[in-house]
Amino acid sequence: MDIKSANEIIQHAINLCISRRLVEPESTILISIEAQLDFLKAIISGKLSDNGGLNNIIVGQYALREFEPGDMEFANVLYEVEEIVDLVKRRRLIL
């Protein structure tokens, strides 16, 4: 996976999150997911350095606990984001 693909997946996840927040604006889970996605996007784009923050991204856990099986579109994109986090942590996606 390259940076462009990672950014597209992250942006897609952000867009899906925003659309769900329109229905549930006070959802603490969606607020947390959006913040995590924004943080990851900033890291991927080089605007922030990691400093261990990648370990706090738990969108895959939210996907499993909160969105499967009722919202598989969102769950699947969150799993893709979790894979990006893993690639960055293992330095297989070079920033």
TrEMBL record:
Residues 8-81 form the Tsi6 domain. InterPro entries: Tsi6. It comes from the Bacteria. Pfam families: Tsi6. This is Tsi6 domain-containing protein. It comes from Dyadobacter psychrophilus.
